[in-house]
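Supplementary Methods S3. Input chains for the assembly prediction are listed below.
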Amino acid sequence: MMFRSLIFAPELILALVLFLFAAGEIRVKNFSNRFALPFLGTGLAGAAVGLFFLGKTGGSVYSGTFTSDPFACFFKYFFLAAAVPVLVMSRVFFCGRPDRTAEFFLIFWSCLLGLFVTVSAQDFLVLFIGLEIVSLSFYVMTAYLRNDSSSAESGIKYLLLGSLASAFLIYGISLFYVLAGTTGFEGVKACFSEPSQRTLCLAAFLFVVSGIGFKIAAAPFHLWVPDVYQGAPSPVVAYLSVASKAAATAVLVRLTAVVFVPLGGIKPLLFSGLAAITLIYGNFGALGQTNLKRLFGYSSIGHAGYLLLGIATENPASAESVLYYLIAFGAANLAVFFVITLVEKETGSAEIGALAGLSRRAPFLAAVMFAAVLSLAGIPPLAGFFGKFYILAAAVQTGLYWLALLGAMMVAVSLYYYLNIVKIMYVSESFSGTKPAVTAASKIILTLLTGVTLAAGLWQTPFLGGIQNAVIRLLGPDL
Amino acid sequence: MSQAFSFAVAALPWLPMAAAVLLLGIPKKNEPALKATAVGACVLNAAVVLALLVSLDPRSGQPQFVFRADWIVSLGITYASGIDGISAVMLLLHALVSTAGAFVAVEPKPRLKEYLIFYLTLVGGIYGVFTSLDLFFLYLFYEMTLIPLFPMIGIWGGKNKEYGAMKLTLFITAGAVLALFGLLLLYAHSGARTFNLADLEILLKENPLGPEPQKLIALLCLAGFGVIASLWPLHSWSPIGYAAAPTSVSMLHAGVLKKMGPYLMIRTAVMLAPEGTRFWAPYLAVLAVIGILYAGYAAMKQTDLKFMVGFSSVSHMGYVLLGIAALHPAAMAGAVLLMFSHGVMAACAFALIGFLYTQTHTRGLGDFGGLARKTPFFATAFVMTSLASLGLPGFANFAAELLVFIGAWRTYPAIVALAVFGILITAVYLLRAVQQLCYGPENPRWPDLKDFISSREKFPIILLLAALILFGLWPWGILRWIEPVLGRILL
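Predicted structure tokens for the full assembly:
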């Protein structure tokens, strides 16, 4: 029993760091301003070490509600890796601002803990707890800037709509409990086999998908995205766009691979429909945007469309393609929001015009943004291209021709607004005479992110190895 | 020895890109070093291509100097490269045009370093397309050429550069993703689990796809790659794109990139979905001849030289597409030869126009006159280029167009009759341009107009014209490579 609990080790380490950070903030003067990054960085490393040694075993604890299989471990590594750029970004963002940083880091850390619980869940209640921890943390982080009315406004919007989504989710879960007598994944899967309960099961399934669809920014649950992305502080948006989406994707992949399998043909039909409207809405919505954060909000919706396309595909390769896509999307989106944070700090504006002439005032940042934006568009030899290629190839293999064609055509549509950014950076005259201040840490992080974008585009095999390992045991018994 | 040659072929796309990375390290003030590296890389690659072509066995229709390595086993993606007869012709074209273009690219301009980095990346990507024998990498290199094109036109272009760059990139990408969908359909339907072209060829010869999938795949590939081949009515990106682009980009694009369209059509639709291509061939022929006449007519109405040459290139691509649509050995051989000769000629034409534009900042037909006296080298080159374009015997274009007409006559007599009429239209606008630019009274606006003086300026023009004349007098030099491959492709 003692040793089984060690599967919890990464989560325990995170919780320990959380408490130590809080204690340090209370006892040591100016703790968060001086020591936050090194301390939290060490915490991340500690959690990664814990994950490496203990997390790979698989198996579950507490009567099968919490698992630490390779699939969950993949996502935990992903969240830890994504946290590094966001921490550096936050430091840069809050430098010189009157807001206190200690609470921000504490809430960020609890969000990380929630993400870990979410991807490890094998039980709907544990899943709900994890998702709620993540959501509540994000609500607070979104509204964090007290003196900024748009931050407060987007926080309230996110809270209201997010609570509605959580309500849908818990209602669906309670319906499953009524039908299955348990909230565990295996138990719920069994309840789909009863023909008399089919309709109610389907209803519960729809409620649950609606709740999670909100988090992945799928249409028609996407209305919060542009406003929240525009108002929230940029580092928060960065983590939100990457980690929250990844967590929701992990949940959907796990659910569709394990729990919702008996649904048969309804599942790909539903997800295809969601993918189609998400792709259309996200890509066409971005076309007219002038605010960078809003534009990337719509772009995120578009990318959620591709992830849903991958989830709709019932093919062993499709789960791999979704994970690959997340890596590509994560690296590129984090780089984009990092550059936006730096430019916002320099010019005070997050409008698209703030990027004008960036290639002249900050050639390094412009190059990073160039690579990131083209990766998001799906241009070879960058990572985003292989992600889209893999997802589309898997979809065509399974017979989802129209959806794959739509996904392919949306590449051309999205290219317009991504190239627009390239144009403004490289062609337009410089917006201001100032230069964005780029610290050494920022440079290193941005170089690493661009490196991942290039590496995952050119040498797919090492990334694929890790992904295949993560996916194979998830889908194992069902293949 | 052939092992070394395989590595050389596999390395062809990467050498210019390595040079681009090298350029990153050279400080932007050191212009001589930047120029030397860029030109040197292009010349080195061209030399490697020439060495490979000399060692190529022209009688074999199979790909030679093949390099193959497993890339992603689970998907069946291989890194495969090699040269067969048709890619040999394309490589020769690209070697000539990229070298000539490099000499033009190093002309003084702001932010020269970035321009040369983009130029080398573009050159490398195109080498990748012509050497690749795996569908995944073929597509990868094809789309990769888009990355440098957009900033090159957008930053260093002329009038309407932003609109031209965006239109060009979006159109070509839309076509490319359509073709990608077609290729993925091929992969899924054939059950091949491989993207390697050699494997696919063998597999599809034994178990060809059914007629319905073939029709769909052929349509997607023909239409998708037809965009960059400026198939009418998908051609509208071309005149504005070329007019807006800087000179060396126009040279590369009209000279080589456009030819990637028909090349990819042959590699995918003709070779892998032949029955489907046969179904769509009549439609392709009709669209080709409409393109010839429409673009020719539009060229007649242009007053801007670059627009005229832009529409002219759309018109000439119509002959190439007609040759492919005929699916007849003579016609297709003519089409490939025309790809080569038109590419060289178009590059030369854009280089000449660019030369005028740099000095006068105008491209209007009526803005010049009497250049035969004032700038004899320019005028000679311009006259030769125009005569080559309208198919004067002695230049490679003549043999090519003749072969296309002879080959297509049996299948599409009416269309060929109309297409031949296109030559008359070409003659009209080209000879008119020659007359207005080179003859008549000298235009007093340009008293100090300089001719091509230094050998560095003259070299690209001489190189391209020499190629046109050499293969005009000896078309067998190129056709001998093409014939065996067509024997393999066309059953």
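Chain A is about 80% helix and 0% strand. Chain A has a mean pLDDT of 89.
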